[in-house]
Amino acid sequence: MSRLAEISDRDLLLVRLRFLDLLKSFFVDEPDAERMSRWRGIFAALAKERINRQLDDVIEKLAENLNKKDLQDLKDEYYTLFTDPYSRQLLPLNAAYYLDGKSFGPSLVDYRELLKEARLIKDRSITDPEDSLPLMLDTLIALIEEEKQGAGEQTKDLQKQLLEQFLIPTTAKLFTAVNNNSEADFYCSCIEFLKAYLDLEEGLFESVDGPL
User: Fold this and answer.
1) In the CATH hierarchy, which top-level class contains the domain 3-209?
2) What is the pLDDT of residues 93-126, one digit of tens each?
3) pTM of the entire predicted model
């Protein structure tokens, strides 16, 4: 059993928000010294906790990785994986690429419909597509914030839809794409951490929907 199942509903929302903010910070842009220092502190603390076996294992890997790498290592890896258009290891972060095999497909239309139902609009200053991984995590964060403020069941339904139709399948395929890349050990672990955490998120909804 996960420790997340043992805390109050309100505290659970706060824990979910903290985890998602941490996960988004891996992908939103190139790491800097302040963020790396924050990651080191967080994972050193998390490595002393016990959440569940899958998360515990990847947390330990990330803590070790952050101790042995310097900032330039992480910057180089980020650039190779997410920025350099000529990189053979380039990993798109938009859901449609993994779900439809192209940047604009039916899944993007469906995702835009979800945003419409959630009454969320992408800031015009953001150039990434709506279904990019950091923005999808942002959407989940916004929906959890709404739930924290007392929003109804529709907010929870949209969270579940976002997880099951977009975030979980995208992350699974992203992990498959990066798993055998020897040049991406840190970000491979980040994606593995995201995958393990999203499985835990899905489990929270299953425990609510399942038999008493």
Assistant:
1) mainly alpha
2) 999 999 999 888 899 999 999 999 999 987 777 8
3) 0.90
CA distance 159 to 143: 7
DSSP-assigned letter for residue 47: T
**CB of 88 closer than 8 Å to CB of 111:** no
CB neighbour class for 142 (10 Å; exposed up to 12, middle 13-18, buried from 19)? middle
Cα gap 31→29, rounded to integer Å: 6
3-state helix, strand, coil in the chain (%, to 5): 70, 0, 30
- pLDDT, tens digit, 9 for 90 and up, residues 10-58: 788 999 999 999 999 999 999 999 999 999 999 999 999 888 888 999 9
**Where are the chain's structural domains?**
3-209
The CA angle 119-194-156, to the nearest 5 degrees, is 35
* Count helices and strands in the chain by DSSP H and E runs: 10, 0
